[in-house]
Amino acid sequence: RAAFTPRFLFPPDSRGNSFATINGDDGEEAIFFFNHIVVWEVVYNQLLSSQRHQLHTSVAEWYETNVEDPRPFYGVMAYHWTKSNNPKKAIDACLRAAREAVQSSAADEAIKLFSLAVSVDVQNNCMESSMRTTVFLELAQLFLRIGEVRQAQSY
């Protein structure tokens, strides 16, 4: 069996289509297309966790270096950084995506992203206390904006 290194494994789109680029042990790159989410899930679940982390890192880095205006992709980058086992990058990406969602008046999405940043921090304790305070304040303000006073008071 030939050795391979997955480089990108993009999640399925709304139609269930996805693709992966894989480097073989001979240095050749192959592209595989998946027409069904179940096939993608089987392939993804066969990867070692270290391979999954590297795939997500590669995708997030690709967006950071190849997209001229990354703002529309902050949410995608946050997803991949949270899956990459890089908590500092994950928190940074979640906060950028959350703040972009606030600017777009997408309070529910912003709350999810701020909460994800807090969750990553709780697991890894890598956010400075002043940043944590700022995030809690932003969460409280969002909850007030949508009329969830009790939720806001918890921050």
> H/E element string?
EEEHHHHHHH
Q: Tell me the number of strands.
A: 3
Number of helices: 7
Poorly predicted runs: none
Q: What average pLDDT do the residues reach? A: 83
| Alpha-carbon distance between the two ends | 54 Å
**Largest sheet, described in full?**
3 strands, antiparallel
| Strand content range | 5-15%
Task: Explain this structure.
It contains 7 helices and 3 strands. The chain has helices at 37-46, 49-66, 74-82, 87-103, 107-124, 129-145, 149-153; strands at 4-9, 18-24, 29-34. The mean pLDDT is 83. The chain is an alpha+beta fold and 155 residues long.
Describe the secondary-structure layout.
Blueprint: E1 4-9, E2 18-24, E3 29-34, H1 37-46, H2 49-66, H3 74-82, H4 87-103, H5 107-124, H6 129-145, H7 149-153
Antiparallel strand pairs: 1-2, 2-3
Helix pairs in contact: 2-3, 3-4, 4-5, 5-6
Features:
alpha+beta, 7 helices, 155 residues, 61% helix, 3-stranded antiparallel beta sheet
Please outline what is shown here:
By secondary structure, this protein is of the alpha+beta class. Helix content is 61%, strand content 12%.
